[in-house]
Design a protein that fits this description.
Blueprint (H helix, E strand, L loop, with lengths): L12 H25 L16 H22 L5 E6 L5 E6 L26 H16 L11 H13 L10 H6 L2 E5 L4 E7 L3
């Protein structure tokens, strides 16, 4: 037995569009009513992270760069000696260096009291004292020249780094060494310079 359906009236394209719009509006109203009945946050799509502004991106890049610089500085060997680095025929700079080497590409950091790591050779105490004396003379700090890289020495190194627009991580390393001011010493006359400069 065949079932017959009454024929539907023909609708114009414009009528179909109006009906579709009314249907969509009705669905939206129903959905809004259902959302109002749900607890806050239920069924709502998770908000994604807010888009970063140019300032946020610059700050993020600066933090990444600072972290990379601090990691690189910390990876260097500990300064365990001091040497006179010649500047010209008359003057040199007493500065922390690597034990048994002419290299000054080393670091000193908080907690160096005096050796860092299991290898005990050289004399970090000497390197730290040379740095502390220079910080006192050239930057007016009043550090105890005790050969201990404690919180006071770290704080002064951070101030020096900020003054020279470096990453203020409190680690004395090659960038800080090259930027900071030093008091010069003449081996020939066994005398110190009256002022400080950054001849590196």
């Amino acid at each position: 037995m065949a079932i017959s359906f009454p024929s539907l009236p023909k609708l114009s394209g414009r009528t179909v569009a109006v009906l579709a719009a009314v249907g969509a509006l009705a669905v939206g109203v129903v959905a809004a009513g259902a959302a109002k009945d749900q607890p806050a946050g239920a069924g709502a799509p998770a908000a994604g992270p807010a888009p970063q502004t140019a300032a946020d991106q610059a700050t993020s890049a600066a933090r990444t760069s600072a972290a990379a610089e601090a990691k690189a500085a910390a990876a260097l060997p500990q300064c365990r000696a001091a040497r006179l680095v010649p500047v010209n025929r008359s003057w040199g700079i007493p500065m922390p260096s690597i034990y048994g080497s002419t290299s000054t590409t080393c670091n000193l950091m908080y907690g160096d009291d005096p050796h860092r790591g299991s290898t005990v050779y050289g004399d970090p105490d000497t390197a730290i004292r040379v740095l502390q004396r220079n910080l006192n003379f050239c930057y007016g700090s009043k550090l105890a020249v005790d050969g201990i890289y404690g919180s006071n020495t770290r704080a002064v190194v951070k101030l020096v780094q900020r003054k020279h627009k470096l990453v203020a991580d409190g680690i004395y390393g090659p960038k800080t060494r090259s930027a900071m001011n030093w008091r010069l010493y003449s081996s020939a006359t066994q005398s110190w310079s009256k002022g400080c400069s950054s001849p590196l």
